[in-house]
Amino acid sequence: MDDTNFLLICVDQWPGHLIEAAGRSDIETPTLNRLCASGTRFSRAYSETPICGPARRGLMTGTNARAHGDRRFRPDLRMPDMPTLAGCFRAAGYQTNAIGKLHVFPPRDRIGFDDVKLAEEGRSGLDGFDDYDEYLGEQGHAGEQFMHGMSNNEYSWRPWHLDERHHVTNWTTREACKTIKRRDPTRPAFWHVSYTHPHPPLAPLAEYLDRYRMRDVLPPVESDWSADADLPYALANMRAYWDRLTPERLTEARRAYYALCTHIDHQIRLILGTLREENLLENTVIGFIADHGDMLGDHGLYAKRAMLEGSVGIPMILLDRPDGDRFAAGAVDTRLAGLQDIMPTLLDMAGIEIPESCCGESLAGPAQRDYLYCEAMEGAGAMRMVTDATHKLIWYPAGNRVQLFDLANDPNETRDLSADPASAEIRAALERRLIGELYGEDLSWVSNGQLVGCPAPERAAMDNRGLTGQRGLQFPPVKPLDPSVVIEPGAKAG
C-alpha cells in the first residue's frame, strides 16, 4: 500500500454527452472540462442498468445485474453477499468514507465504508432521518427539504427555497471537505462523494438559474421513429407517464436542470481546492461518473430506464496521479466501458487484488470488450440492449420490437435501421450477441434461436395522484413506509 488516495465523485442522472468538453455548447462545466484536460474521458461509457438502485449495486460490487440480482429496482433488496469497492479498500488498510447518496437498503448499511454521511432524498420513512435531514433540523428547518413543492421525479421547476448554504449540493461538498481535512494522516483514503442532483426535484439556486436565463438551450432530439404513434410498448408507457411539456416549458426545465449541473461543477472545485491545500492533490486518483443519464425530452421521453443514449450513456472521467501513466491527459478513450469496470479499475490502480466476483475489467490496462450488454425492467416493461460501440441493437420483448442504430454516423439515434436490408447482417450479429446474454424470464421469449418476445398488453390509464413520489413536510418524522413500493411507469406512486 502506497500513499495514493482515491476520490470517486458520482452524480445522479447526468447524461454522458452533457459536458462542455464533450462538445455541448449549451452547458457550462468548467471544472469537468479541466478534469477532461488532465485525464481521460470515456466516450462510450454506459450504465448497464440505468436505474438508480441497480446501477449503484453494480458500481459498488463491480458486477452486472445478472450477478447482483436487480434489473428493475427492488428498493427492499439488500446488497448481495459479495465484496464491495469500499470493503476491499478498507481490508487493504485504507480509510473509507462516503458522503451523499448510497441508495442501498437498509439506507444505513455502510457497505464497507468506515463512515457514511448520508443524504437520501427524503427517504426517512425507510430508516429514520439521514444526516442531511438532521443538519436541516439543527439549522431550524426540520422537515423542510421539499417545501419548494417540486417532485423528485418530475420536470416542473422553481428556485431553491432556503438559504444557499442549506442546499444539499452545498452540504455534500462541505461534508466532503471536512472529511478530507479530518482524515487519519497515517493512512491513504478512499473517498466517495455522491451528489443527489441533477436528478429532480428541479429546484436549483436562483443564482444558477440566472446564469442560464438568457442563454439558448439546444432543442430536444427528434426523429421519425419517435414521432410514430406506434412506439414499442415500454417506450409508449414511459411517454404516457410523464407530462409532455410544451417547447417553452421544456426549455425552462432544461435550464433548471443545467443550473443544477453547473452548481455541482462549481462545488467540485472546492473539493479539489481542499485536496490542494492539504497537499493531497498530487497523490490522489480522481474519478467522475454518473449512475445513469436522463432523456430530458429527447425523442419525447424523460428520465431513465430507456436504452437510448440520453438514458444509458454516462460521463466517465479518470485521472491518474500526475506522475502516473495509466490515463493520459486530454485523451478520449473509445473503449466500451461500464459502471462494473470502476471497482476493478480503482483496485488495480491501488495494487489491491480484484475479487473473482467482479464482472468488470480494469480500464487501467489494455482490456477491450467486443460488446456490452445492458438491461432494465422485467415483464412488459423490459428493455434489452447490446452495442459493439459502432452499432446498437435495442429489443423490447413486449410486442417483439427491435431498434437498430448506427452510433458512428447517427449518435443521436434518429434513424432506426432495423428494417434496412443493408443492415440485416449487423442486426443478425447483434441479435445473436443479445440472445447469448439473456437469462431468467427472458429465455421464454426466445424460440429456436430467434427473438419472439411476448404479447404487448393493453396500456391502462395511469393514476399518478401521488405525483411520482411527491414528498411533503417531513417533520414530525414520516411514518414507516413499505420499502418494497416502487415508483415507476405503470405502477402507483407510493
UniProtKB/TrEMBL annotation:
Reply yes or no: does the keyword Hydrolase apply. Answer: yes
> What Pfam family is a match for this entry?
Sulfatase
**From what superkingdom does this record's organism come?**
Bacteria
Provide the Gene Ontology terms for cellular component.
cytoplasm
Sulfatase N-terminal domain sequence ranges: 5-352
InterPro entries referenced in this protein's UniProt entry, alphabetically: Alkaline_phosphatase_core_sf, Sulfatase_CS, Sulfatase_N
Q: Which GO terms describe its molecular function?
A: metal ion binding; sulfuric ester hydrolase activity
Sorted alphabetically, the keyword list is: Hydrolase, Metal-binding, Plasmid
Give the UniProt family note: Belongs to the sulfatase family.
Name recorded for this polypeptide:
Arylsulfatase A family protein
